[in-house]
Design brief:
229 residues, mainly alpha, 3-stranded mixed β-sheet, 3 strands
């Protein structure tokens, strides 16, 4: 009964968040995602997670806050009731169904820029929805404008995250979260329009190097300029 009640409460919170984001930015919500709340009896096969998560499933069950899986249009919630950042995953869902970004046959570097934009919108959405967030990446040196400091920081980081996939995931979140924070305050202060944010949600990055260009453009627009030449 407890699990069923928790499932229903979190589903309602996720769906409300989706509707609020969609209404604010004139976006479509043709259906809702599947929402799965983990408990001690959850089997890996029930979650439709990518295979590379399988060996770490026990650790994920203990520590995961929230995750959106595009392939199955599912939001996975961890064991901690209502401590998850539901708004971020709800925003990822809205972004996905309005952009339908296709990542196949793209260079890895281009995918990384697109992922940064996705994390920017996810973090922005959670702040817009009123969630209290603490950006754990705000004190990281910026790899583009603080190369020396970042090189030294990276040496220490590699000792903690030995798997390249997890290190890159943190770097993508560092860029995305810091941009998302800036985007929220820019929107709050009317320095960026609702239409511009709507277009970000709908952008499918269909042309070559679109992700790279948009990443550089957003850093410039949000007062964090770089040159990737």
């Amino acid at each position: 009964m407890y699990h069923q009640g928790r499932q229903e409460r979190i589903e309602e919170a996720v769906f409300d968040s989706i509707e609020e984001i969609a209404e604010e930015f004139d976006l479509n919500v043709p259906f809702y995602p599947n929402v799965h709340c983990l408990d001690e009896l959850t089997e890996f096969e029930e979650l439709c997670l990518p295979d590379y998560f399988k060996e770490d499933f026990d650790e994920i069950g203990k520590n995961l806050d929230a995750l959106f899986i595009q392939k199955s249009c599912s939001i996975i919630l961890g064991l901690k009731p209502f401590k998850s950042d539901l708004g971020e995953e709800a925003t990822h869902f809205v972004h996905y169904i309005n952009s339908r970004i296709k990542k196949r046959r793209r260079e890895n570097s281009e995918k990384e820029f697109i992922f940064c934009i996705s994390e920017m919108l996810g973090y922005f959405g959670s702040l817009f929805l009123g969630e209290e967030r603490m950006n754990q990446y705000s004190q990281w040196p910026d790899p583009y404008s603080q190369k020396g400091e970042f090189k030294e920081f990276l040496k220490e980081l590699k000792k903690k995250y030995s798997k390249p996939i997890f290190l890159m995931d943190h770097l993508i979140h560092q860029q995305g979260y810091c941009l998302g924070e800036r985007l929220f305050y820019a929107y709050q202060n009317s320095h960026i329009s609702k239409r511009e944010i709507t277009n970000l949600f709908r952008n499918n990055f269909g042309r070559e190097n679109d992700g790279r260009r948009k990443f550089v453009e957003m850093r410039q627009k949000l007062g964090w300029p770089i040159n990737l030449q």
